[in-house]
Amino acid sequence: MLNFILLQAEGAGGGILGQVFLFGSIILIMYFFMIRPQQKKQKETKNFLEEVKKGDNIVTIGGIHGKIYAVEGDTIILELDKGFKIKIEKSAVSLEFTKRASGTK
């Protein structure tokens, strides 16, 4: 009976190595399919917001279309119609809709 229990205990050691390998591979897959693409998207958005300039046509997160009249630090003055301007935060500009609206990329 004691030999039977000891044999079962020895077999469990090989399973632990397989479980560690499986867990590590799941973490690696999550990194490449979830974390890395999100970091890339954040980097593209940051670069886009740093490069906006006067005259660019943009769309805000709220869906407001307009042309940049002026850039002042972290804020943008957006011209919606001739003579009608609003002040928005740079973080309110949407990268995805800007690409669609301007027809580039």
UniProtKB/TrEMBL annotation:
Gene designation per UniProt: yajC
Keyword Transport: yes
Pfam families found in the cross-reference section: YajC
Similarity annotation: Belongs to the YajC family.
InterPro entries membership: Preprotein_translocase_YajC
Keyword line: Cell membrane, Membrane, Protein transport, Translocation, Transmembrane, Transmembrane helix, Transport
Protein name (Swiss-Prot/TrEMBL): Sec translocon accessory complex subunit YajC
Principal location listed in the UniProt entry: membrane
Membrane topology: Single-pass membrane protein
Subcellular location: Cell membrane
